[in-house]
Amino acid sequence: VSANHxxxxxxxxxxxxxxxxxxxxxxxxxxxxxxxxxxxxxxHALDRAREDTTVGAIILTxxxxxxxxxxxxxxxxxxxxxxxxxxNPDRQPSGSSVGRFHVTDLQxxxxxxxxxxxxxxxxxxxxxxxxxxxxxxxxxxxxNARFGQTGPKVGSFDGGFGASVLVDAVGPKKAKxxxxxxxxxxxxxxxxxxxxxxxxxxxxLEAETVGWCEEMLANSPFALRLLKASxxxxxxxxxxxxxxAHDTNLLFYGNEEAQVGRDxxxxxxxxxxxxxPKRP
Length: 280
Ligand code: 2NE
Prior knowledge:
10 strands, elongated
Protein backbone atom coordinates (compact mmCIF):
# COMPACT_ATOMS: atom_id res chain seq x y z
CA VAL A 1 0.00 0.00 0.00
CA SER A 2 1.19 3.49 -0.69
CA ALA A 3 -0.30 6.65 0.78
CA ASN A 4 0.05 10.29 -0.11
CA HIS A 5 -1.67 13.60 0.36
CA UNK A 6 -3.31 16.29 -1.70
CA UNK A 7 -0.36 18.09 -3.28
CA UNK A 8 0.73 14.92 -5.08
CA UNK A 9 -2.67 14.38 -6.61
CA UNK A 10 -3.65 15.75 -9.96
CA UNK A 11 -4.60 19.35 -9.06
CA UNK A 12 -8.14 20.58 -9.45
CA UNK A 13 -9.20 24.20 -9.94
CA UNK A 14 -8.18 26.62 -7.18
CA UNK A 15 -7.00 26.15 -3.61
CA UNK A 16 -8.68 23.59 -1.37
CA UNK A 17 -9.59 24.20 2.28
CA UNK A 18 -7.91 20.97 3.32
CA UNK A 19 -6.08 18.09 1.79
CA UNK A 20 -6.99 14.70 0.41
CA UNK A 21 -5.27 11.50 1.46
CA UNK A 22 -4.89 8.84 -1.19
CA UNK A 23 -4.33 5.20 -0.25
CA UNK A 24 -3.31 2.92 -3.08
CA UNK A 25 -3.24 -0.88 -2.98
CA UNK A 26 -0.03 -1.52 -4.86
CA UNK A 27 -0.10 -5.15 -6.07
CA UNK A 28 -1.13 -4.74 -9.70
CA UNK A 29 0.49 -8.06 -10.69
CA UNK A 30 -2.33 -9.86 -8.83
CA UNK A 31 -5.05 -7.29 -9.64
CA UNK A 32 -4.41 -5.71 -6.23
CA UNK A 33 -5.48 -8.75 -4.25
CA UNK A 34 -4.88 -8.19 -0.55
CA UNK A 35 -2.70 -10.20 1.80
CA UNK A 36 -2.87 -9.75 5.60
CA UNK A 37 0.05 -7.32 5.29
CA UNK A 38 -1.94 -5.25 2.79
CA UNK A 39 -4.79 -4.92 5.27
CA UNK A 40 -2.41 -3.91 8.06
CA UNK A 41 -0.88 -1.25 5.81
CA UNK A 42 -4.25 0.14 4.68
CA UNK A 43 -5.34 0.30 8.32
CA HIS A 44 -2.20 2.27 9.27
CA ALA A 45 -2.63 4.63 6.33
CA LEU A 46 -6.27 5.22 7.26
CA ASP A 47 -5.24 5.97 10.84
CA ARG A 48 -2.69 8.49 9.62
CA ALA A 49 -5.28 10.16 7.41
CA ARG A 50 -7.77 10.23 10.27
CA GLU A 51 -5.25 11.78 12.67
CA ASP A 52 -4.12 14.43 10.17
CA THR A 53 -6.39 17.39 10.89
CA THR A 54 -5.73 18.88 7.46
CA VAL A 55 -7.17 15.82 5.71
CA GLY A 56 -10.85 16.21 4.87
CA ALA A 57 -11.39 13.31 2.48
CA ILE A 58 -9.70 9.99 1.81
CA ILE A 59 -9.42 8.19 -1.52
CA LEU A 60 -8.99 4.41 -1.58
CA THR A 61 -7.81 3.02 -4.89
CA UNK A 62 -5.75 0.36 -6.60
CA UNK A 63 -2.59 0.77 -8.62
CA UNK A 64 -3.02 0.74 -12.40
CA UNK A 65 -5.97 0.75 -14.76
CA UNK A 66 -6.74 -2.98 -14.51
CA UNK A 67 -8.00 -3.34 -10.96
CA UNK A 68 -9.20 -1.59 -7.84
CA UNK A 69 -8.92 -4.82 -5.86
CA UNK A 70 -9.59 -8.51 -6.57
CA UNK A 71 -10.21 -9.46 -2.94
CA UNK A 72 -8.31 -11.83 -0.72
CA UNK A 73 -5.11 -13.22 -2.22
CA UNK A 74 -6.03 -16.83 -2.88
CA UNK A 75 -2.35 -17.83 -3.01
CA UNK A 76 -2.00 -17.15 0.72
CA UNK A 77 -5.40 -18.51 1.69
CA UNK A 78 -4.89 -21.31 4.18
CA UNK A 79 -7.30 -23.50 6.10
CA UNK A 80 -7.77 -21.00 8.91
CA UNK A 81 -7.93 -17.72 6.99
CA UNK A 82 -5.39 -15.70 5.01
CA UNK A 83 -1.79 -16.43 5.92
CA UNK A 84 0.93 -13.93 6.39
CA UNK A 85 3.33 -13.85 3.46
CA UNK A 86 4.82 -17.38 3.44
CA UNK A 87 7.89 -16.05 1.61
CA ASN A 88 8.65 -13.62 4.39
CA PRO A 89 8.93 -15.27 7.83
CA ASP A 90 9.71 -11.89 9.40
CA ARG A 91 6.09 -10.99 8.92
CA GLN A 92 4.80 -14.05 10.78
CA PRO A 93 3.65 -13.13 14.27
CA SER A 94 5.56 -15.30 16.75
CA GLY A 95 6.89 -17.39 13.90
CA SER A 96 3.61 -19.18 13.26
CA SER A 97 1.42 -19.00 10.23
CA VAL A 98 -1.93 -18.26 11.79
CA GLY A 99 -4.71 -17.50 9.35
CA ARG A 100 -6.32 -14.08 9.52
CA PHE A 101 -9.60 -12.63 8.40
CA HIS A 102 -9.14 -9.06 9.50
CA VAL A 103 -10.40 -7.40 6.33
CA THR A 104 -13.60 -7.31 8.38
CA ASP A 105 -11.88 -5.00 10.87
CA LEU A 106 -10.82 -2.78 7.98
CA GLN A 107 -14.43 -2.59 6.81
CA UNK A 108 -15.47 -1.42 10.28
CA UNK A 109 -12.60 1.08 10.33
CA UNK A 110 -13.68 2.59 7.01
CA UNK A 111 -17.28 2.82 8.18
CA UNK A 112 -16.32 4.46 11.45
CA UNK A 113 -13.73 6.80 9.99
CA UNK A 114 -15.22 10.25 10.60
CA UNK A 115 -14.07 11.52 7.21
CA UNK A 116 -15.58 10.61 3.85
CA UNK A 117 -13.80 7.67 2.20
CA UNK A 118 -14.12 7.57 -1.58
CA UNK A 119 -13.43 4.46 -3.65
CA UNK A 120 -11.75 5.37 -6.94
CA UNK A 121 -12.33 2.31 -9.11
CA UNK A 122 -10.58 1.50 -12.36
CA UNK A 123 -10.88 -2.05 -13.61
CA UNK A 124 -11.99 -4.89 -11.38
CA UNK A 125 -13.62 -4.48 -7.99
CA UNK A 126 -14.19 -8.15 -7.35
CA UNK A 127 -14.79 -10.40 -4.35
CA UNK A 128 -13.49 -8.85 -1.13
CA UNK A 129 -12.39 -5.92 -3.31
CA UNK A 130 -15.99 -5.35 -4.29
CA UNK A 131 -16.97 -5.26 -0.63
CA UNK A 132 -14.23 -2.71 0.04
CA UNK A 133 -15.65 -0.29 -2.54
CA UNK A 134 -19.15 -0.96 -1.23
CA UNK A 135 -18.11 0.01 2.29
CA UNK A 136 -16.64 3.31 1.10
CA UNK A 137 -18.96 6.30 1.35
CA UNK A 138 -18.84 7.12 -2.35
CA UNK A 139 -17.60 5.27 -5.43
CA UNK A 140 -16.30 6.98 -8.54
CA UNK A 141 -16.01 4.40 -11.31
CA UNK A 142 -13.98 4.56 -14.49
CA UNK A 143 -15.76 3.41 -17.62
CA ASN A 144 -13.61 0.25 -17.63
CA ALA A 145 -14.67 -0.73 -14.10
CA ARG A 146 -16.17 -4.17 -13.51
CA PHE A 147 -17.95 -5.21 -10.36
CA GLY A 148 -18.94 -8.50 -8.82
CA GLN A 149 -18.67 -11.09 -6.07
CA THR A 150 -16.92 -14.42 -6.60
CA GLY A 151 -17.14 -15.93 -3.12
CA PRO A 152 -19.41 -18.89 -3.88
CA LYS A 153 -17.16 -19.76 -6.85
CA VAL A 154 -14.04 -19.96 -4.71
CA GLY A 155 -15.57 -21.30 -1.52
CA SER A 156 -16.00 -18.07 0.40
CA PHE A 157 -18.59 -15.41 1.17
CA ASP A 158 -19.06 -12.17 3.06
CA GLY A 159 -22.39 -12.39 4.84
CA GLY A 160 -21.58 -9.34 6.97
CA PHE A 161 -21.44 -5.85 5.46
CA GLY A 162 -20.88 -7.59 2.12
CA ALA A 163 -24.50 -8.75 2.29
CA SER A 164 -26.30 -6.13 4.39
CA VAL A 165 -24.77 -3.02 2.85
CA LEU A 166 -25.27 -4.51 -0.61
CA VAL A 167 -28.97 -5.05 0.13
CA ASP A 168 -29.23 -1.42 1.22
CA ALA A 169 -27.52 -0.30 -1.99
CA VAL A 170 -29.28 -2.40 -4.62
CA GLY A 171 -32.21 -4.13 -2.90
CA PRO A 172 -32.57 -7.77 -1.84
CA LYS A 173 -33.30 -9.35 -5.24
CA LYS A 174 -30.30 -7.79 -6.94
CA ALA A 175 -28.04 -8.41 -3.93
CA LYS A 176 -28.93 -12.09 -3.99
CA UNK A 177 -28.38 -12.23 -7.77
CA UNK A 178 -24.93 -10.69 -7.33
CA UNK A 179 -23.93 -13.21 -4.68
CA UNK A 180 -25.73 -16.33 -5.99
CA UNK A 181 -24.71 -16.04 -9.66
CA UNK A 182 -21.28 -14.39 -9.29
CA UNK A 183 -21.67 -12.43 -12.52
CA UNK A 184 -19.62 -9.40 -13.44
CA UNK A 185 -21.31 -6.05 -14.05
CA UNK A 186 -20.14 -3.13 -16.15
CA UNK A 187 -19.69 0.37 -14.74
CA UNK A 188 -22.93 1.50 -16.39
CA UNK A 189 -24.84 -1.46 -14.94
CA UNK A 190 -23.37 -0.66 -11.53
CA UNK A 191 -24.51 2.95 -11.92
CA UNK A 192 -28.03 1.98 -12.87
CA UNK A 193 -28.37 -0.30 -9.83
CA UNK A 194 -27.06 2.33 -7.40
CA UNK A 195 -23.72 0.65 -6.68
CA UNK A 196 -21.64 3.65 -7.72
CA UNK A 197 -22.10 7.41 -7.74
CA UNK A 198 -20.85 8.21 -11.21
CA UNK A 199 -19.00 6.76 -14.19
CA UNK A 200 -16.24 8.79 -15.82
CA UNK A 201 -13.72 8.18 -18.60
CA UNK A 202 -10.71 6.27 -17.31
CA UNK A 203 -8.33 9.10 -18.18
CA UNK A 204 -10.46 11.52 -16.11
CA LEU A 205 -10.85 9.21 -13.11
CA GLU A 206 -8.42 10.85 -10.72
CA ALA A 207 -9.32 14.43 -11.70
CA GLU A 208 -13.04 13.70 -11.29
CA THR A 209 -12.49 11.94 -7.96
CA VAL A 210 -10.39 14.83 -6.67
CA GLY A 211 -13.14 17.20 -7.87
CA TRP A 212 -15.76 15.33 -5.80
CA CYS A 213 -13.43 15.43 -2.80
CA GLU A 214 -12.84 19.15 -3.25
CA GLU A 215 -16.59 19.76 -3.26
CA MET A 216 -16.80 17.97 0.09
CA LEU A 217 -13.76 19.84 1.43
CA ALA A 218 -15.62 23.11 0.81
CA ASN A 219 -18.33 21.95 3.23
CA SER A 220 -18.37 21.83 7.03
CA PRO A 221 -16.19 18.89 8.14
CA PHE A 222 -18.15 18.45 11.34
CA ALA A 223 -21.45 18.38 9.49
CA LEU A 224 -20.03 15.66 7.20
CA ARG A 225 -18.77 13.76 10.24
CA LEU A 226 -22.17 13.84 11.94
CA LEU A 227 -23.95 12.92 8.72
CA LYS A 228 -21.71 9.90 8.17
CA ALA A 229 -22.31 8.71 11.73
CA SER A 230 -26.05 9.34 11.34
CA UNK A 231 -26.27 7.34 8.12
CA UNK A 232 -24.80 4.32 9.92
CA UNK A 233 -26.33 4.69 13.38
CA UNK A 234 -29.40 2.52 12.88
CA UNK A 235 -27.69 -0.24 10.90
CA UNK A 236 -24.73 -0.43 13.26
CA UNK A 237 -26.93 -0.68 16.34
CA UNK A 238 -25.34 0.19 19.67
CA UNK A 239 -21.94 0.74 17.98
CA UNK A 240 -23.48 3.22 15.55
CA UNK A 241 -25.36 5.03 18.29
CA UNK A 242 -22.21 5.10 20.40
CA UNK A 243 -20.30 6.90 17.66
CA UNK A 244 -23.09 9.42 17.08
CA ALA A 245 -23.53 9.96 20.82
CA HIS A 246 -19.84 10.61 21.34
CA ASP A 247 -19.81 13.04 18.46
CA THR A 248 -22.49 15.00 20.30
CA ASN A 249 -20.35 14.72 23.44
CA LEU A 250 -17.43 16.12 21.47
CA LEU A 251 -19.58 19.10 20.51
CA PHE A 252 -20.84 19.43 24.10
CA TYR A 253 -17.25 19.82 25.32
CA GLY A 254 -17.17 23.15 23.48
CA ASN A 255 -20.28 24.30 25.31
CA GLU A 256 -20.09 26.51 28.42
CA GLU A 257 -22.40 24.18 30.33
CA ALA A 258 -19.95 21.28 29.96
CA GLN A 259 -17.02 23.52 30.81
CA VAL A 260 -18.65 24.58 34.08
CA GLY A 261 -18.63 20.92 35.15
CA ARG A 262 -15.01 20.42 34.08
CA ASP A 263 -13.76 23.60 35.74
CA UNK A 264 -15.58 22.93 39.02
CA UNK A 265 -14.03 19.45 39.20
CA UNK A 266 -10.54 20.80 38.52
CA UNK A 267 -11.01 23.51 41.15
CA UNK A 268 -12.44 21.11 43.74
CA UNK A 269 -15.83 22.82 44.14
CA UNK A 270 -19.45 22.05 43.38
CA UNK A 271 -20.54 23.03 39.85
CA UNK A 272 -23.26 25.67 39.49
CA UNK A 273 -25.44 24.69 36.54
CA UNK A 274 -28.32 26.93 37.71
CA UNK A 275 -27.72 29.58 35.04
CA UNK A 276 -28.34 27.15 32.20
CA PRO A 277 -31.86 26.88 30.81
CA LYS A 278 -33.78 23.64 31.08
CA ARG A 279 -34.48 23.65 27.38
CA PRO A 280 -38.01 22.86 26.18
C1 2NE B 1 -10.04 -10.09 -10.99
C2 2NE B 1 -10.12 -10.99 -12.19
C3 2NE B 1 -11.56 -11.03 -12.75
C4 2NE B 1 -9.18 -10.39 -13.28
O1 2NE B 1 -9.16 -11.21 -14.42
P1 2NE B 1 -7.99 -10.99 -15.52
O2 2NE B 1 -8.29 -11.95 -16.62
O3 2NE B 1 -7.88 -9.53 -15.84
O4 2NE B 1 -6.61 -11.34 -14.80
P2 2NE B 1 -6.07 -12.77 -14.34
O5 2NE B 1 -5.22 -13.34 -15.39
O6 2NE B 1 -7.17 -13.63 -13.82
O7 2NE B 1 -5.18 -12.33 -13.08
C5 2NE B 1 -3.88 -11.81 -13.23
C6 2NE B 1 -3.01 -12.41 -12.19
O8 2NE B 1 -3.52 -12.02 -10.92
C7 2NE B 1 -3.78 -13.17 -10.14
C8 2NE B 1 -4.10 -14.25 -11.16
O9 2NE B 1 -3.97 -15.53 -10.58
C9 2NE B 1 -3.09 -13.95 -12.22
O10 2NE B 1 -1.84 -14.45 -11.79
P3 2NE B 1 -0.77 -15.02 -12.87
O11 2NE B 1 -1.49 -16.07 -13.68
O12 2NE B 1 -0.37 -13.83 -13.72
O13 2NE B 1 0.35 -15.55 -12.05
N1 2NE B 1 -4.91 -12.90 -9.28
C10 2NE B 1 -6.02 -12.21 -9.56
N2 2NE B 1 -6.84 -12.14 -8.53
C11 2NE B 1 -6.24 -12.83 -7.54
C12 2NE B 1 -6.59 -13.14 -6.20
N3 2NE B 1 -7.74 -12.70 -5.63
N4 2NE B 1 -5.73 -13.86 -5.47
C13 2NE B 1 -4.57 -14.27 -5.98
N5 2NE B 1 -4.17 -14.02 -7.26
C14 2NE B 1 -5.01 -13.31 -8.00
C15 2NE B 1 -9.65 -12.42 -11.89
O14 2NE B 1 -8.28 -12.41 -11.67
C16 2NE B 1 -10.34 -13.04 -10.74
O15 2NE B 1 -11.48 -13.46 -10.83
N6 2NE B 1 -9.62 -13.11 -9.60
C17 2NE B 1 -10.07 -13.83 -8.43
C18 2NE B 1 -11.11 -13.03 -7.67
C19 2NE B 1 -11.48 -13.75 -6.40
O16 2NE B 1 -12.05 -14.83 -6.46
N7 2NE B 1 -11.14 -13.19 -5.25
C20 2NE B 1 -11.33 -13.80 -3.96
C21 2NE B 1 -12.78 -13.72 -3.47
S1 2NE B 1 -13.00 -14.24 -1.79
C22 2NE B 1 -12.58 -12.77 -0.93
O17 2NE B 1 -12.04 -11.89 -1.49
C23 2NE B 1 -12.86 -12.68 0.53
C24 2NE B 1 -14.07 -13.08 1.03
O18 2NE B 1 -14.98 -13.62 0.25
C25 2NE B 1 -14.32 -13.01 2.39
C26 2NE B 1 -13.37 -12.44 3.20
C27 2NE B 1 -12.16 -12.01 2.68
C28 2NE B 1 -11.91 -12.11 1.32
